[in-house]
Design a protein that fits this description.
The chain is α+β, with helices and mostly antiparallel strands and about 290 residues long. Helix content is about 20%, strand content about 25%. The strands form four sheets. The chain has an eight-stranded mixed beta sheet. It has a three-stranded antiparallel beta sheet with strand order 13-7-15.
């Protein structure tokens, strides 16, 4: 577990016109609000200024895919101290790289989801941590020929779709997040992004247990609405169809996601994850705009 630290957000130092990245890379938006494909960019060769631009681009577009990657750990450390997942597994000799692996004949996930009607498991990575990850880097090492996609939901866009009256009711609410390891934190239900000033819904069905100071039935009803709002808002979502060596970088502060386990057991899905930690989630007044 990381000790508390003061996070400096690189995106705040970036030129919002992206002069460096746009000079040698091509950016194509996947949807009007969420996700961009960036081609012609070698992550390991980026300068400090280009890394700042990258952080700002991810903050604005929430995630993007199809980038070559090398020197993963040293690169990712630029964006914050790296989270080490207590349950592993890790890349041998490198605990900062967490491995999500489904091997040939592995029925573990199929067995887990067998009692359910769906394999969808919406979540924000490590939201039970006191200072959850900001940017998250996913690198697909091996993937099924068909299936095994990941769906992302823009939780800032989902928040914007709420009525002002409902947004006012959410103002000031806090929720408990608890991991299977017992790590527990209390965070605002609506958090503010330190760069864009956007507010986003910061609850998820995997880690959020209840609303603080609400009775059980009240908490259950509110969380059910928020979880369903995120799951049903396909106009705020983008779906990544993986290929080997694809890299996805997303802003964990304003994105929730779920893998889709629809592939057959005789195929491998082998994904590496690196997660720089960021600031402790906070909320600003309803009409206050912060950041650039």
């Amino acid at each position: 577990m990381l000790e508390p630290f003061e996070h400096h957000e690189p995106a705040k130092d970036a030129d919002p016109t992206f002069p460096i990245i746009s000079s040698f890379a091509h950016i194509k938006d996947l949807t009007p609000s969420t996700g961009s494909v960036v081609s012609g960019l070698q992550l390991s060769s980026l300068t400090r200024q280009a890394k700042d631009e990258l952080a700002l681009l991810v903050a604005q577009r929430k995630d993007f895919k199809d980038l070559p990657i090398s020197s993963v750990v040293n690169f990712c450390k630029y964006f914050g101290p790296l989270v080490i997942f207590p349950l592993g597994p890790y890349l041998p000799g490198c605990p900062e790289i967490h491995i999500a692996h489904n091997g040939v004949g592995d029925t573990r996930l199929r067995d887990i989801y067998a009692p359910r009607t769906t394999s969808m498991s919406w979540h924000t990575d490590s939201s039970a941590n006191a200072q959850p990850p900001g940017l998250v880097f996913l690198y697909m090492l091996e993937c099924p020929e068909v299936g095994g996609d990941t769906v992302f939901i823009n939780t800032a866009q989902a928040y914007k779709k709420l009525s002002r009256s409902f947004a006012q009711r959410l103002q000031g609410l806090k929720a408990e997040h608890k991991a299977s390891t017992g790590v527990t934190s209390v965070h605002p239900v609506v958090r503010t992004h330190p760069v864009t000033g956007e507010k986003s819904l910061f609850v998820n069905p995997l880690y959020t247990t209840h609303i603080i100071d609400f009775k059980k039935e009240e908490s259950d009803a509110l969380l059910k609405f928020l979880f369903e709002h995120l799951a049903y808002s396909q106009d705020c979502q983008v779906r990544v169809q993986w290929t080997e060596d694809t890299v996805v970088i997303f802003d964990n502060r304003a994105v929730a996601h779920s893998a889709i386990f629809d592939f057959v057991d005789d195929q491998r899905r082998h994904l590496a994850r690196v997660s720089p930690a960021a600031e402790r989630p906070y909320e600003t007044p309803l009409d206050e705009i912060v950041g650039k």
